[in-house]
Amino acid sequence: MINESIQNLESMLNDESGKLSKSKKRRIIMRLSKLKKGLRGEVEIGGQIQKSIKTIKREMKQKSMNSSISLRKNSNVVCLCCRKKGHQMSDCRYYKQTNEEAENGDNEINSISERNASGKEVFKCFLCGELGHTLKDCKKPRNDNSVLPFASCFRCGKTGHIVAFCPNNETGSIYPRGGSCNICGSVKHLARNCDQQISKTNKNKKSIEGKNKEKMNIGMDDPDLMWNEAM
Protein backbone atom coordinates (compact mmCIF):
# COMPACT_ATOMS: atom_id res chain seq x y z
CA MET A 1 0.00 0.00 0.00
CA ILE A 2 2.81 2.41 0.91
CA ASN A 3 4.83 1.39 -2.15
CA GLU A 4 1.81 2.04 -4.37
CA SER A 5 1.36 5.51 -2.88
CA ILE A 6 5.05 6.28 -3.41
CA GLN A 7 4.84 5.18 -7.06
CA ASN A 8 1.73 7.30 -7.66
CA LEU A 9 3.31 10.41 -6.17
CA GLU A 10 6.58 9.92 -8.05
CA SER A 11 4.73 9.44 -11.34
CA MET A 12 2.72 12.60 -10.57
CA LEU A 13 5.95 14.55 -10.09
CA ASN A 14 7.48 13.19 -13.29
CA ASP A 15 4.44 13.31 -15.60
CA GLU A 16 2.66 16.44 -14.39
CA SER A 17 5.62 18.46 -13.18
CA GLY A 18 4.82 21.39 -15.46
CA LYS A 19 1.19 21.57 -14.33
CA LEU A 20 1.87 21.49 -10.59
CA SER A 21 2.41 24.65 -8.55
CA LYS A 22 5.50 25.10 -6.39
CA SER A 23 3.55 24.63 -3.16
CA LYS A 24 1.94 21.45 -4.51
CA LYS A 25 5.33 20.04 -5.52
CA ARG A 26 6.77 20.89 -2.12
CA ARG A 27 3.92 19.11 -0.32
CA ILE A 28 4.26 16.04 -2.55
CA ILE A 29 8.01 15.87 -1.85
CA MET A 30 7.34 16.17 1.89
CA ARG A 31 4.73 13.43 1.63
CA LEU A 32 7.15 11.18 -0.28
CA SER A 33 9.79 11.70 2.39
CA LYS A 34 7.32 10.76 5.12
CA LEU A 35 6.13 7.68 3.21
CA LYS A 36 9.68 6.45 2.75
CA LYS A 37 10.37 6.94 6.46
CA GLY A 38 7.17 5.02 7.21
CA LEU A 39 8.31 2.24 4.90
CA ARG A 40 11.47 1.97 6.97
CA GLY A 41 9.38 2.01 10.17
CA GLU A 42 10.74 5.32 11.42
CA VAL A 43 7.37 7.15 11.63
CA GLU A 44 3.64 6.37 11.55
CA ILE A 45 1.84 7.54 8.43
CA GLY A 46 -1.78 7.98 7.37
CA GLY A 47 -4.22 10.34 5.71
CA GLN A 48 -3.81 12.41 2.57
CA ILE A 49 -1.75 15.38 1.49
CA GLN A 50 -2.92 18.37 3.52
CA LYS A 51 -4.12 21.52 1.80
CA SER A 52 -1.88 24.55 1.98
CA ILE A 53 -2.80 27.43 4.28
CA LYS A 54 -3.25 29.63 1.22
CA THR A 55 -5.79 27.20 -0.27
CA ILE A 56 -7.69 26.93 3.01
CA LYS A 57 -7.89 30.73 3.34
CA ARG A 58 -9.07 31.05 -0.27
CA GLU A 59 -11.83 28.48 0.27
CA MET A 60 -12.96 30.18 3.49
CA LYS A 61 -13.07 33.54 1.71
CA GLN A 62 -15.12 32.04 -1.12
CA LYS A 63 -17.62 30.56 1.35
CA SER A 64 -18.05 33.90 3.13
CA MET A 65 -18.56 35.65 -0.22
CA ASN A 66 -21.19 33.11 -1.25
CA SER A 67 -23.04 33.51 2.04
CA SER A 68 -23.05 37.32 1.74
CA ILE A 69 -24.33 37.08 -1.85
CA SER A 70 -27.14 34.74 -0.78
CA LEU A 71 -28.08 37.16 2.03
CA ARG A 72 -28.30 40.05 -0.44
CA LYS A 73 -30.42 37.97 -2.80
CA ASN A 74 -32.81 36.96 -0.01
CA SER A 75 -33.17 40.50 1.35
CA ASN A 76 -36.30 41.10 -0.76
CA VAL A 77 -37.55 37.50 -0.75
CA VAL A 78 -40.93 37.02 0.94
CA CYS A 79 -41.51 33.78 2.86
CA LEU A 80 -44.63 31.95 1.69
CA CYS A 81 -45.24 30.67 5.22
CA CYS A 82 -44.90 33.65 7.61
CA ARG A 83 -45.04 36.35 4.88
CA LYS A 84 -41.92 38.10 6.25
CA LYS A 85 -38.95 39.28 4.18
CA GLY A 86 -35.39 38.00 4.30
CA HIS A 87 -35.75 34.23 4.03
CA GLN A 88 -37.44 31.45 2.07
CA MET A 89 -40.04 29.00 3.31
CA SER A 90 -37.47 26.20 3.60
CA ASP A 91 -35.55 28.33 6.15
CA CYS A 92 -38.62 29.58 8.00
CA ARG A 93 -38.71 28.85 11.74
CA TYR A 94 -42.49 28.72 11.79
CA TYR A 95 -42.57 26.23 8.91
CA LYS A 96 -39.97 24.01 10.62
CA GLN A 97 -41.92 24.23 13.88
CA THR A 98 -45.14 23.00 12.24
CA ASN A 99 -43.25 20.12 10.65
CA GLU A 100 -41.76 19.13 14.02
CA GLU A 101 -45.24 19.21 15.58
CA ALA A 102 -46.53 16.99 12.81
CA GLU A 103 -43.74 14.47 13.39
CA ASN A 104 -44.54 14.43 17.12
CA GLY A 105 -48.22 13.76 16.42
CA ASP A 106 -49.48 17.23 17.44
CA ASN A 107 -50.57 18.05 13.93
CA GLU A 108 -51.50 16.34 10.68
CA ILE A 109 -49.60 17.01 7.49
CA ASN A 110 -49.93 14.87 4.37
CA SER A 111 -47.37 15.18 1.62
CA ILE A 112 -48.53 16.35 -1.79
CA SER A 113 -46.44 13.59 -3.33
CA GLU A 114 -45.61 10.00 -2.51
CA ARG A 115 -43.24 7.39 -3.87
CA ASN A 116 -44.36 4.39 -5.85
CA ALA A 117 -42.90 0.87 -5.73
CA SER A 118 -39.92 1.86 -7.90
CA GLY A 119 -39.10 4.79 -5.61
CA LYS A 120 -40.17 7.43 -8.14
CA GLU A 121 -42.00 10.45 -6.74
CA VAL A 122 -45.55 10.89 -8.07
CA PHE A 123 -48.04 13.68 -7.40
CA LYS A 124 -51.09 13.19 -5.23
CA CYS A 125 -54.37 14.94 -6.06
CA PHE A 126 -55.66 17.29 -3.34
CA LEU A 127 -59.28 16.48 -4.19
CA CYS A 128 -59.56 12.71 -4.71
CA GLY A 129 -56.28 11.58 -3.16
CA GLU A 130 -55.26 9.47 -6.17
CA LEU A 131 -51.65 9.36 -7.33
CA GLY A 132 -50.55 10.32 -10.82
CA HIS A 133 -52.35 13.63 -11.40
CA THR A 134 -52.74 17.07 -9.84
CA LEU A 135 -55.82 19.05 -8.82
CA LYS A 136 -56.25 20.81 -12.16
CA ASP A 137 -56.34 17.46 -14.02
CA CYS A 138 -58.78 15.78 -11.61
CA LYS A 139 -62.05 14.59 -13.19
CA LYS A 140 -63.97 14.48 -9.91
CA PRO A 141 -66.59 17.29 -9.72
CA ARG A 142 -65.62 20.12 -7.39
CA ASN A 143 -68.37 22.11 -5.65
CA ASP A 144 -66.29 24.10 -3.16
CA ASN A 145 -62.69 25.08 -3.93
CA SER A 146 -61.98 25.73 -0.26
CA VAL A 147 -62.57 22.08 0.69
CA LEU A 148 -59.70 19.85 -0.41
CA PRO A 149 -59.54 16.73 1.81
CA PHE A 150 -56.03 15.67 0.78
CA ALA A 151 -54.37 19.12 0.70
CA SER A 152 -51.96 20.32 3.37
CA CYS A 153 -51.55 24.01 4.15
CA PHE A 154 -47.96 25.19 4.63
CA ARG A 155 -49.26 28.27 6.51
CA CYS A 156 -50.89 26.50 9.47
CA GLY A 157 -49.74 22.92 8.83
CA LYS A 158 -53.26 21.45 8.86
CA THR A 159 -54.99 19.36 6.20
CA GLY A 160 -58.20 20.03 4.28
CA HIS A 161 -57.34 23.34 2.62
CA ILE A 162 -54.60 25.24 0.82
CA VAL A 163 -53.00 28.52 1.90
CA ALA A 164 -55.49 30.63 -0.10
CA PHE A 165 -58.33 29.46 2.18
CA CYS A 166 -56.32 29.26 5.41
CA PRO A 167 -57.96 31.02 8.39
CA ASN A 168 -54.49 32.32 9.36
CA ASN A 169 -54.09 33.96 5.95
CA GLU A 170 -55.75 37.34 6.43
CA THR A 171 -55.59 38.45 2.80
CA GLY A 172 -56.55 35.06 1.37
CA SER A 173 -53.94 35.53 -1.35
CA ILE A 174 -51.37 33.04 -2.59
CA TYR A 175 -49.31 35.90 -4.07
CA PRO A 176 -46.85 37.07 -1.37
CA ARG A 177 -45.65 40.05 -3.43
CA GLY A 178 -49.09 41.05 -4.64
CA GLY A 179 -50.70 40.39 -7.98
CA SER A 180 -53.43 38.09 -9.18
CA CYS A 181 -54.42 35.65 -11.90
CA ASN A 182 -53.94 37.48 -15.21
CA ILE A 183 -56.99 35.71 -16.69
CA CYS A 184 -59.79 36.24 -14.15
CA GLY A 185 -58.13 38.48 -11.53
CA SER A 186 -58.50 36.07 -8.61
CA VAL A 187 -55.84 35.96 -5.87
CA LYS A 188 -56.68 32.39 -4.84
CA HIS A 189 -55.09 30.49 -7.72
CA LEU A 190 -52.38 30.71 -10.36
CA ALA A 191 -53.17 31.43 -13.99
CA ARG A 192 -52.31 27.88 -15.03
CA ASN A 193 -54.97 26.58 -12.60
CA CYS A 194 -57.68 29.05 -13.67
CA ASP A 195 -61.00 27.44 -14.58
CA GLN A 196 -61.52 29.97 -17.38
CA GLN A 197 -58.16 29.06 -18.87
CA ILE A 198 -58.97 25.33 -18.71
CA SER A 199 -62.41 25.82 -20.31
CA LYS A 200 -60.86 28.05 -22.99
CA THR A 201 -58.25 25.39 -23.76
CA ASN A 202 -60.95 22.72 -24.05
CA LYS A 203 -62.97 24.94 -26.41
CA ASN A 204 -59.92 25.51 -28.61
CA LYS A 205 -59.29 21.76 -28.76
CA LYS A 206 -62.90 21.11 -29.76
CA SER A 207 -62.82 23.82 -32.45
CA ILE A 208 -59.57 22.41 -33.90
CA GLU A 209 -61.03 18.90 -33.93
CA GLY A 210 -64.19 20.22 -35.63
CA LYS A 211 -62.16 21.99 -38.33
CA ASN A 212 -60.14 18.84 -38.99
CA LYS A 213 -63.35 16.81 -39.38
CA GLU A 214 -64.76 19.40 -41.81
CA LYS A 215 -61.60 19.20 -43.92
CA MET A 216 -61.85 15.42 -44.00
CA ASN A 217 -65.52 15.54 -45.04
CA ILE A 218 -64.79 18.10 -47.76
CA GLY A 219 -62.00 15.93 -49.08
CA MET A 220 -64.26 12.88 -49.21
CA ASP A 221 -66.98 14.78 -51.14
CA ASP A 222 -64.55 16.47 -53.52
CA PRO A 223 -65.61 15.45 -57.11
CA ASP A 224 -62.06 15.89 -58.45
CA LEU A 225 -60.76 13.56 -55.75
CA MET A 226 -63.50 11.03 -56.49
CA TRP A 227 -62.73 11.26 -60.24
CA ASN A 228 -59.01 10.62 -59.61
CA GLU A 229 -59.84 7.64 -57.42
CA ALA A 230 -62.12 6.25 -60.13
CA MET A 231 -59.34 6.61 -62.70
Automatic annotation (TrEMBL):
GO terms for molecular function: nucleic acid binding; zinc ion binding. Keywords: Metal-binding, Zinc, Zinc-finger. PROSITE patterns: ZF_CCHC. The keyword DNA damage does not apply. The keyword Membrane does not apply. It comes from the Eukaryota. Residues 124-140, 153-168 form the CCHC-type domain. InterPro entries: ZCCHC9 (IPR042246), Znf_CCHC (IPR001878), Znf_CCHC_sf (IPR036875). One of its GO terms (cellular component) is nucleolus. Pfam families: zf-CCHC. This is Cp22.4.1 protein. It comes from Cryptosporidium parvum. The lineage of its organism: Eukaryota, Sar, Alveolata, Apicomplexa, Conoidasida.
